[in-house]
Amino acid sequence: MVFNYQFVELPKLEIIQRRVWQDHFYLDIDDDRFWPQDKKDWEHYTELVEAVETIMDWGKVWYVALVTVNPKSRLPIHTDGGENDKRNPYALNIPIHNCDKTYTPFYRVLDPDYKPKPTTTFGETDLYLDYPEDQVEEVDRMYLTQPAYFRHQMIHSVINPTDQLRVALSIRFIEDISKCMNN
After folding, report:
1. What radius of gyration, in Å, describes the C-alpha atoms of the chain?
2. Closest CA to 168 of 158, 179, 178, 156
3. I want to staple 75 with a disulfide (CB 3.0 to 4.6 A). Which of 84, 145, 146, 158 is the partner?
4. Is 124 in a helix, a strand, or coil?
5. In Å, how far are 104, 115, 116, 180 from 148, measured between CA atoms?
6. Could you read off the pLDDT of 12-32 as tens digits, one per residue?
7. What is the pLDDT of residues 64-98, one digit of tens each?
8. Contacts (Cβ under 8 Å, ≥6 apart) of 26
């Protein structure tokens, strides 16, 4: 069975959240961003590495991204891109700050013949498909209240109706993690 998301328990979550927030809250964020970073930049977060290794070996992490959504803002409706993203439709998303009052809606296309607009948001190899709001309808919604396997190949957005920045981590793997999910 295919899931849009599935919550998972991770050890030392509060420590991970506190350390990442303390280290990254200073960011001068002027737009909603997906900040991919080399996994080596995250290896000093030993609690994060240990937590991820309860799911899959850290050596199989492709990269770690900080996902930020400004107050009273939303990400475009899209599917994530890149060749490896297409092979691995799930990521491990971890809430860091203000994720419980923000949400990720999942959508389906209204017209099966509609062709989404491709955009290269983060480089030529990362092709994202954008969808206008009038071409989709919401079919599911996730509040990232705890870590979750997240199906980033499903059309989605992130909506932050609050007055605070929303921050999450999205860990991408070089192998498909769906086999780790409880089916």
Report:
1. 16
2. 158
3. 158
4. coil
5. 12, 29, 27, 12
6. 999 999 999 998 776 656 666
7. 998 989 999 998 898 887 555 666 889 999 999 99
8. none
